[in-house]
């Protein structure tokens, strides 16, 4: 049986030097209680299959949303985590194709957010990306 994309992404991210240097934790959505910032939660928003004549391909573009929790109201930490996450996406392929000259993943933009109910406010960044996925891996 194939390993789910989120599980493969978290396993690969935990070994990516730029993310481990920042001490980033990972989970699938929702954010686990008691987790320590900085943290990234991942959620698959959509996974549209690709069809060719008479069949469906194993590869598809999967929309994954990363919610980055920084360490407090200062955006510096969350922006550093975002930069490391984008570097991870640029360097990692989830489609099983090696030797690509460019990353098959596409970052779609980031929105800055905050949880005002926490004191001090918790700074967040939400980033969408299209991940080239192979469901057989």
Fold and architecture overview:
The protein is an alpha+beta fold and 137 residues long. Strands 1-2-3-5-4 form a five-stranded mixed β-sheet. A hairpin with a 2-residue loop joins strand 2 and strand 3.
In brief, what are we looking at here?
With 137 residues, the chain is of the alpha+beta class. Helix content is 23%, strand content 41%. β2 and β3 form a beta hairpin.
Give me the secondary-structure topology.
Layout: H1 5-13, H2 17-21, E1 25-28, E2 39-52, E3 55-69, H3 75-91, E4 106-115, E5 122-134
Parallel strand pairs: 1-2
Antiparallel strand pairs: 2-3, 3-5, 4-5
Rounded average pLDDT: 86
The coarse overall form would be elongated
H and E string: HHEEEHEE
Number of H/I helices: 3
User: What structural category do the secondary elements indicate?
Assistant: alpha+beta
Order of strands across the main sheet: 1-2-3-5-4
Largest sheet, if any? 5 strands, mixed
Multimeric status of the protein: single chain
The tally of strands reads: 5
Distinctive features:
elongated, 3 helices, alpha+beta, five-stranded mixed β-sheet, 41% strand, 137 residues
